[in-house]
Structures are given as C-alpha cells and as structure tokens.
From TrEMBL:
Organism of this sequence: Dictyobacter arantiisoli
Keyword Protease (UniProt): yes
Domain Peptidase S53: 87-401
Membrane spanning stretches: 32-52
Domain of life: Bacteria
Protein name (record): Peptidase S53 domain-containing protein
Keywords tagged on the record: Hydrolase, Membrane, Protease, Serine protease, Transmembrane, Transmembrane helix
Pfam family, any one: Peptidase_S8
UniProt KW NAD keyword: no
Gene Ontology biological process terms in this record: proteolysis
InterPro entries to which the protein is assigned, alphabetical: Peptidase_S8/S53_dom (IPR000209), Peptidase_S8/S53_dom_sf (IPR036852), Peptidase_S8_Ser-AS (IPR023828), Peptidase_S8_subtilisin-rel (IPR015500), Sedolisin_dom (IPR030400), Tripeptidyl-peptidase_I (IPR050819)
Signal peptide extent: none
Length: 401
C-alpha cells in the first residue's frame, strides 16, 4: 500500500458462520474462521511487505486505489504577511531549465487530468498569473477549457489543490499555451480511463497525470498504447522513494517523472522520488538501446526528473502556498512539451540522452532509499532521477531535423 495519501480505501476481513449448528460448534467454527482470517491477513501483509522492500522493488497486485502524489502543502501566513510568497517562481524555473520564458508555448495545447471539480480554478490561476506577469488564462480568453467526464459537471473533489498546482505549473512553463482541464469522476476506473478520453484531441501535445493507483493496472495499459498522435503522457513517479511505483507511471507508453532538490545552481536526487524496477513490464526497447544499468530485463522508473523536493510557489483557493512532490515535477515536463517542435516520446528522450547528453542535467548525488545501487543517483541513467532534468533539452530538440 502506498503511504503518501489516498482516496477511498477500505479493507475487510470477512467470515461467515453456518446457521442451525449447536452453540458450541458455532463458537468453535467462528473462532476457527476468525483465527484463520487473522493468519491469512498476516501472511498477505507479510508477503506484500517483503515484496515491496525486496532487492527487486515491484508493484504489488491488489485492488486499485487512487493516491495523490503530493507530500505536503506549506501555506504562508497571510495574516502576518499579506500576499507573501515562498518558493520557486516561474522565472526561477525558466532560468533553471533554460526555458524560453514568457513567449513559450504559443499555438500549443496541453492538458491536465484530475478527479473532482475545482471551483476556484480560474480565480486562483488569474491571481497566480497577475503576480508573476504571466498572460491571463481563463475560459473567456480561450486559454483555459474545462471539460467533464461524461459531459456533466462534477462536484468538488477530494483535493482541488492538486489540480490547481498542476495547471499553474504548466502555465508557468508554457505561458502562451492553451490548457485543457479534464475533470474526471473519482472512481478508479474513471481515473484510469480518463487520459484516453482526451488523448485524440486535435493538436494536443501532452497530458499531465499527477497521481497513481495501486494494483497492476494491466487492464488499462492498452488505452495508453493507443496514442496515434504521440501525445506525451507524463506521470508523477511517486513521493515515497524506492519501490513505491504505480500505474500509470510504470506503463512503458508513459513518461515517468521523478524528483530533485535544488540548492543554488546544484540539483541532487530527492529522497522521496519514486523509482525502481517494475516486475509487471519487460524492459522496453528504448531502455534496452540506452543500456540502462542493472535492469534485470524490467521496466525502469523514472525516465526523467524535475524539481520536487524544493518548494514552488502556488496560489490555491485564495491563498499563497508552497508545494513539493513529484506532482510539481510532472507538470513542469508537461509544459515543456509545448515548447518543442516534436512530440516528446520515450524514444526521443533516450535517443537524445545518447546523442546529445547535454540535453539533460545528469543528477549524480542523492538517494531515495537504502537499497544500494538502485536507490542512489549516479552518472548516466539511475532509478531515482532517470536521465536527469532539462538542461539544453528545449534548444536541442528544436534544432533537430
């Protein structure tokens, strides 16, 4: 079970007692069932724990549960310092990752998928944009489009701040891009199917998924593979370190985004960055070609990274806040897709890392656990930050023929 938060989770130990038996027999049978249930539950939990913490971290089988990938929210004290902000700004991100800035994303469309309505989305995004000199982005201007799964308005969700964070970061990275906000229902099937609902939207460059769900997710993988327009599918890798990897980030058709910590001009691996190897999927060709280390023939996670353990500024539900988590990293990459003239695919990422390694800032320090090589950042691909964070990525892709 993922520990970084979750929507509706329930666990049950069910037993039944046959009716019409004597009281003594009924009592003994009830005790037997109860003890058997406890033993079975202990065995299952022990097996899950061993599997999750073993030498080859993998995704556990089980019922799907949505888990928001955000470590925490740190709100500023508006009463003491009205309008105060704390954390990295859009301008900081432009400088860190060599992004074009205020003019980036013109003529492009990117998307956010999240469960549950966000009543303050427009007002929060407008306040954020005004504070940092970004273009206004709202429904009236045509910059923001809000659609609902099933065509009917969906009530406020469990965590509206998640969607606000994602959209503001996407707008910060690609200020001129249009944003499609797709509100899904909160049951797991709807969430798993949501990206496929909009994947063939004309002109769409990328979709952000700052969430994960437990279980194999195998029954939904084909939806992500059916992507004829090569829309870049970015998923947060998780906030609980090594071994805590879930769908959709484990899908070979998805680009998994891990996290870093920034100190001045230096980035290191973030301790919470989800990563590892998934036993559910064989190593895809793009990773085989790159020759990622100690893969054991399995899908490695993440593929790339961006800042996650250092706070970024957001404006959520009428208040300034600061956020951390791979929910920050994933929308940064989702916005970057609007800054380049080619579709961002896993093939492109790994090919570019070999042919033009200066496209990425190779993260070589830090760790996300205590499992040795798999939990430690090092030169080249690693299971904490993937290929690294953007360096000359935008310029190099746009210079490709």
């Amino acid at each position: 079970m993922n520990s970084y938060g979750m929507h509706s989770i329930s666990s049950h130990v069910n037993g039944s007692v046959a009716m019409g038996e004597s009281t003594e027999r009924n009592y003994k049978r009830s005790n037997g069932i109860f003890i058997g249930s406890i033993i079975l539950t202990f065995v299952l939990l022990t097996t899950a724990f061993i599997s999750a913490t073993g030498a080859n971290p993998h995704v556990l089988n089980g019922p799907a549960r949505l888990v928001p990938l955000r470590t925490h929210i740190t709100h500023t004290h508006a009463a003491a310092k009205p309008g105060a902000i704390s954390g990295l700004t859009p301008q900081d991100l432009w400088k860190m990752y060599n992004l074009p800035g205020i003019n980036g994303g013109a003529g492009q469309t990117i998307a956010e998928v999240i469960d549950g309505g966000i009543p303050s989305m427009e007002s929060d995004l407008n306040a954020y944009s005004q504070r940092f000199g970004l273009p206004a982005c709202n429904v009236a201007s045509g910059c923001l489009t809000i659609k609902y799964q099933g065509g009917k308005k969906i009530a406020k969700g469990y965590d509206p701040a998640e969607g606000i964070l994602d959209v503001e970061l996407m707008h910060a990275v690609a200020p001129q891009a249009k944003i499609l906000l797709y509100i899904m229902n909160s049951d797991n099937t709807s969430i798993a199917r949501g990206p496929a609902d909009i994947m063939q939207t004309p002109g769409l460059k990328s979709i952000n998924m700052s969430y994960g769900f437990d279980g194999t997710g195998k029954q939904f993988e084909s939806l992500y593979a059916n992507n004829p327009n090569h829309v870049a599918l970015f998923a947060a890798s998780g906030d609980d370190g090594s071994g805590q990897i879930t769908p959709p980030s484990i899908y070979p058709e998805v680009i998994a985004v891990g996290g870093t910590v920034v100190s001045g001009s230096t980035e290191s691996a973030w301790s919470g960055s989800g990563g590892g190897r998934s036993s559910l999927y064989a190593e895809p060709d793009y990773q085989k070609t790159y020759n990622i280390p100690q893969s054991h023939g399995l899908r490695g996670n993440p593929d790339v990274a961006a800042v996650a353990g250092t706070e970024v500024v957001t404006y959520e539900m009428g208040k300034w806040a600061s956020e951390t988590g791979t929910s920050v990293a994933a929308p940064i990459w989702t916005g970057i897709a609007a800054l380049v003239n080619k579709p961002i695919t896993d093939d492109l990422l790994y090919t570019l890392a070999k042919s033009q390694p200066d496209s990425f800032n190779d993260i070589t320090s830090g760790s996300n656990g205590s499992c040795g090589f798999v939990c430690t950042a090092h030169p080249g691909y690693d299971y904490v930050t993937g290929l690294g964070t953007p360096k000359n990525f935008v310029a190099n892709v746009n210079a490709m023929k």
